[in-house]
Amino acid sequence: MAIFGLWVINKAGGLVYQRTFADGLAQLTSNEYLILAGTLHGIHAITSRLSPIPGQCSGAQVIEGETFKLNVLLTLTGTKFVLLTSPAEPTAAIDTLLQKIYTAYSEKVMQNPFHTPEMPIRSEAFDMSLTALVH
Amino acid sequence: MTIYSLYIFDRRIRHCICVYYHDWHRTRRPKSAVEGGILPAVSTAVFAPAADANSSALSGYASPRNTLSSASGIVVAVNEMNSQSTASPLLQAPPSPIAVSSTGLAFDEEVKLVYGVVLSLRNMIKKLSGRYEIVDLSENLPERYKIYRDEQFVNYRTSAYKLHLFETLSGYKFVMLSDPGIESMRLVLRQIYVGPFLEYVVRNPLISMDSKEHGIDNEYFRTSVDRMVRGLSFYL
To answer: Which of A25, A49, A53 is closest, CB to CB, to B130?
Structure first.
């Protein structure tokens, strides 16, 4: 049971929020995180085109490594929330948590009149509600 | 629960070289590859039918390999385009696809997308994990003999399918698309590698492993992979 970190990626593929909650993964520079987020944005778009069956297909929702996984929530507005957790974490619990994080985001970030959309998030209120949600 | 397709990629990382393709319950197929977009002997299912008659007439005399397919009807070597027409006793009848639709992509483009996704995710997972450990700690071994091991990308899931990766130590990448409900296919992919792949590809003297001209498709390999996948409990 470990939640390693959270990324928020805007609809253009830019990383607007990155936070580490627990150790266990590599410590990267903010520049490296930006590159990874951009890559993930592109991969996400491709994965929805590779579907072997007809019908709607979402992009990648869970990406698994051996010791951790990335859980992606794509909102209707194109913002992506990426939660890095340990692989044993149950999917249902993560989905609820991601929904709660999305709620916190809309309350503490989007409703803030001083926040510019699609720009990096610097909000103490958002930080605090995330801390409350994750711990 | 079902299996959709299997891709095998060559060990050369910088180039996207698909050496084998097989599909099962796939109802949305790519268009045929453009000529020259993909190696011959990867899969008979996705070749451009154009110029087939022409090339088979030519290669029937030109290719020394063709002697293999004449008498027995079993091609142990490279499966050329023209062997599609020869009835093979080993292969089961291909699954009759029901209402196959197209992805709108040509096969060679699809292969590039699959490879791109797999390679990017693999590098991303490696970078994120920060794990890089030496497995064999024999101290007196020279540096180049030590085995390093880092985090592997295992799979990703979308609402419609799940993609699994198994990479061998030599760098061959086995990629399988399955139903999103299936937990892990790594063992199955490993079995394909340990069983049919080693037996009918690596130990097959008629296949050159790093060929730039041919894939690794041959009848024995295709049949045993097919049998193995059809025998899986979640193949329905």
So the answer is: A25
Overall domain count for chain B: 1
Spatial distance between the Cα atoms of A105 and A81, rounded to a whole number of angstroms: 10
**Exposure string over A9-32, b if 16+ CB within 10 A, otherwise e:** bbeebebbbbeebeebbeebeeee
Instruction: Report H helices in chain A.
Output: 30-47, 91-105, 124-134
Alpha-carbon distance A89 to nearest alpha carbon in chain B (angstroms): 14
* CB contact A62 to B (< 8 Å): yes
Task: Count CA atoms closer than 13 A to A77's CA, side-chain side.
Answer: 11
Task: Provide, as residue numbers in chain A, all residues whose Cβ is less than 8 Å from the Cβ of B23.
Answer: 52
Question: Residue A84 and residue B128: Cβ atoms within 8 Å?
Answer: yes
How far apart are the C-alpha atoms of B224 and B195, rounded to whole Å? 9
Which residues form the domain of A119? Answer: 3-134
Determine whether the interchain pair B157/A61 forms a contact, defined as Cβ–Cβ distance below 8 Å. Answer: yes
CATH number at residue A34: 3.30.450.70
Q: Is the pLDDT of residue B212 over 60?
A: yes
C-beta atoms of B159 and A47 within 8 A: no
Write down the ipTM of this complex: 0.93
Tell me, rounded to whole angstroms, the distance of Cα B158 from its chain centroid.
21
Structure tokens at B163: 């993609």
Give pLDDT tens digits for A82-123: 999 999 989 999 999 999 999 999 999 999 999 999 999 999
- Give the residue among B26, B6, B30, B7 at the shortest CA–CA distance from B17: B7
Identify the domain containing residue B187 by its residue range. 3-230
Inter-helix orientation angle A91-105/A124-134, to 10°: 160
